Amino acid sequence: MTALDKKDLHVHTPFCPHRHTDAPLEAYLAAAERAGMAEVAFTEHAPLPIPLERTQYEENPNLSADGVDAYFAGMQAFREHYTGPVRMRIGLEVEYFEGCEEKTGHILEAYGPRMEDGLISVHNLLVDGCYLNLDYRHNIIAAVKAVGARKLGEIYYRTLIRSVTADLGPWRPRRVGHPTLLGRCGRLFPEFYDNLPVMEEFILVVKEQECALELNTSGVLYPDDCGQIYGEALLPLIQKHRVPVSLGSDAHEPERIGGGFDLPVIQENLKTLLPVWEA
Ligand SMILES: [Zn+2]
Ligand SMILES: [Zn+2]
User: Fold this and answer.
1) pLDDT in tens, 65-96
2) Which of 49, 50, 99, 150 could pair with 103 in a Cys bridge, judged by C-beta atoms 3.0 to 4.6 Å apart?
3) What is the CA(68)–ligand 2 centre distance, in A?
């Protein structure tokens, strides 16, 4: 069985509108090989289920419908000629916007048959009829000002619960991306980790829905504001309830693939975590 730290199951690609580099796909596979990865899941951002104007994004960070077709075609064509040792899965990171379940179901209907893997990720929270975006620290800080840190944490975990219980159809992704994304500012607002009952409720729902959680190492890229991997705050509950996990770097550039997989928090827990492919 492949060890957890040999599969990076959350990697972006040259097709990502907000990629950090214009490096070609070859460079991603070469970097994965150098990092000792046996497998990489490419999970490009699926189209937003709502108009851009209803979000806090200034530019669309996600693929357009045409972009998705180009992505699948380009990735599949690359793989046909790839002879290296890294196994490639081609999938999508699908957005969960509360209230947009039907549209999200249609997106999954359209792309599900081509998806070999998928993440369901919450980057936006519905608060008082508006979608608050969690990708940027200033947005999180503004959201805390609006509703308070403890309440925002509660809303976040309630939204995660909905993301795994929503009826998104047969193609719904079963891995939850970066399940403490709010911790992007967790050092500023420790109250985000303060609500154990709702966090445990979320863990139990994940288990019951036969889903899995991602431990996402990109949180450590923000040492002052976050300083831990996404999912770390849930580790005691993940262990207690034997919830399956995968590791993801969320790399938007080749050099980041497998990044952080050597961190003590991962290495010290490797033997007691249940990899999603063994669940
Ligand atoms: Zn991205
Ligand atoms: Zn994400």
Assistant:
1) 999 999 999 999 999 999 999 999 999 999 99
2) 49
3) 17
